[in-house]
Amino acid sequence: MSEIPTESGQAGEQVEMNFFDHLGELRTRLLWAVLGIAIGCIVAGIYTDELMAILLKPASNANLELQNLQPMGQIFLLFKVILIAGIILSSPWVLYQIWRFVAPGLYSHERAWARKITLFTSICFLAGVAFAYFVMIPSSMKFASETGFKDIKNSFDVNLYFGFVTTFILAMGLVFEMPMIAYVLAQMGILTSEFMRKYRRHAFIIILLIAAIATPTPDPVNQMIFAVPLWILYEISVWIVRISQKPKVLDTTAA
């Protein structure tokens, strides 16, 4: 048996939850999260034509020729795109369910910043998705269309194309979570702004390496297009960590 604060957060008001209670709560939140993803998939399915047009636009702008090489390839591709789009659309709801599962185990002052995480985590993720779609993917497609020999025609498997696009979108969405991850670690007392400033040069080198690996283009211009936003995210994370440390400093001084 374990005592945890109630969701109301009032002092002295507590409820006991055992292992099976936690499992029941986890099951409830998982069911709500799956329901949200299902609704997101339904919405994506309704707007399939518009969704496919959006995802095919980078290839069209780069004059890439896409072809299907599998008998049921386009059908499986459609289900894959609907599922990924449903996950992206429902991501704020899924994050909210995660917060609802964690919230009863938090104290009132911890819930104050935990609520904000749900909103800003969604914003950061969607910002990463937008950056991938409007900046990184068009740059990569342009490079793919212009690279090669004149006697070899560039014709790409549509499933590989969509796999590349969706992977890039999800990866950048996760990368843009850096400020929120830094905020959570700072609230937990694991990460400090002093540590991030001390290893700023190391972080810059790591960012350059990531940019060199993640971008298919060898030229430094496209690598900088990827590296500069990551560096900005790192600096934002340093600022966020420094701000989030202030209450702890004040509490220590008052004590």
What does this structure look like?
The structure is a single chain. This protein has 255 residues and is mainly alpha-helical. The chain is 76% helix and 5% strand. It is built from 9 helices and 4 strands; from the N terminus they run ββααβααβααααα. The chain has a two-stranded antiparallel ribbon with strand order 1-2. Helix 3 (73-102) packs parallel to helix 5 and helix 6 packs parallel to helix 9 (220-254).
Number of strand segments? 4
Please state how the strands of the largest beta sheet are arranged side by side.
1-2
Helices and strands, in order, run as EEHHEHHEHHHHH
The rough form would be described as flat
Largest sheet: 2 strands, antiparallel
User: Which band does the percent of strand residues land in?
Assistant: 5-15%
Uncertain segments are 1-14, 248-255
Quick overview:
The chain contains 9 helices and 4 strands; from the N terminus they run ββααβααβααααα. With 255 residues, it is mainly α. A hairpin with an 8-residue loop joins strand 1 and strand 2 (14-17).
Task: Write a concise keyword list for the protein shown above.
two-stranded antiparallel sheet, two-stranded parallel ribbon, disordered N terminus, disordered C terminus
